[in-house]
Amino acid sequence: MDERLIAQTCFPSRYVQGPAALGMIPRIAKGFGGRALMITDPFVADKVLPTVQDKLQGADLVIEKFGGECTDDEIDRLVAIGKERQCESVIGFGGGKTLDTAKAVSAYMQVQIIIVPTLASTDAPCSARAVIYKPTGEVVRYLDLPKNPDVVLLDTELIVKAPVRFLISGIGDALSTWFEAESCMTKGAANSTCGAGHLHPGTMTAYALAKLCYETLCEYGTLAVMSAKAGACTPAFEKVVEANTLLSGLGFESGGLGAAHAIHNGLSELEECHKYMHGEKVAFGVLAGLFFADKSQEVIDKVYKLCEDVGLPTTLADLGVKEVTEEKLKIVAERTCVPEETIHNELRPGLPSQVIQAIKAADAEGRRRKGM
Ligand SMILES: [Zn+2]
Description:
- The protein is α/β, with parallel strands linked by helices.
- The protein is 49% helix and 12% strand.
- The chain has a six-stranded parallel β-sheet with strand order 1-8-5-4-2-3.
- A hairpin with a 5-residue loop joins strand 6 (129-133) and strand 7 (139-144).
- The longest helix is centred in the middle third of the chain and has 26 residues, at 204-229.
- InterPro entries: ADH_Fe/GldA, ADH_Fe_CS, Glycerol_DH.
């Protein structure tokens, strides 16, 4: 058996999205056996739950507030509660770390999991991966779960109320999906299913969905951001929430990652970039990746225009790097090109010198277009 010849694509079992979709939780939880352990953000517990009681009526819920960090101790604490109260499923309701904790708790309890994101800011909800942290905030390890979530459920009436910056960041993350999947497809590189060290490429389904993700953002991205600013849950908003969550999730996991996420990890080395969101840094990684991969003027214009229209960064200054020095570029480029990084899924060799050229060009193009 040669893993490189065996394609693999992973999906959540069920994806549910729409206004007032929370109302489906009682029925779904009942189908999983009855009582559910609901792990929520403190914000969700205090501000959201009291307003959605009617939608959750009839569900047998044990509600526990998440402690704030996805650590082994926090997971153990919640597993103990779930077992003691004889919960037959786990519901994660909130942001990324709450959802990762809920995924881990359900895996250890060996029960079904319902993931309920309150933001459309990243592509993590659909994946089989959870990131475990130390109580001090550093990453300890990636926990690769035996399966993707049983249900991912988004209530768009709720999501449209979140600050619009989260949706925009999600667009930045989703914008990387096709370019990275395309590189992996062309090179036959491994995707992100089943954790590090495996060699499976994706299936044609995964690449087709990654392409649909990009086309959806180009067509509806600007309309979705405008809708969200108006608090309007329009069809365009629905489409982009799906692109950010489902298409981007399937695309990164089963299509694979490339230059954009590697450059994101490089940018994260700079102190100035720390206050920016994942998708905002990924968006600049996409722009630099376009120069790195030698894309056409037409593609470059289209992607810059989308970033400008929705409000994603197009220059290093937009990411807080006011003074660009060779030293900073070198730090970013060297981290981008460490051996385990996904830039090596690109056709061209992932050399720090080439990454520096790409970042300089992307920044200059962003400034030129702004008339700077
Ligand atoms: Zn990402």
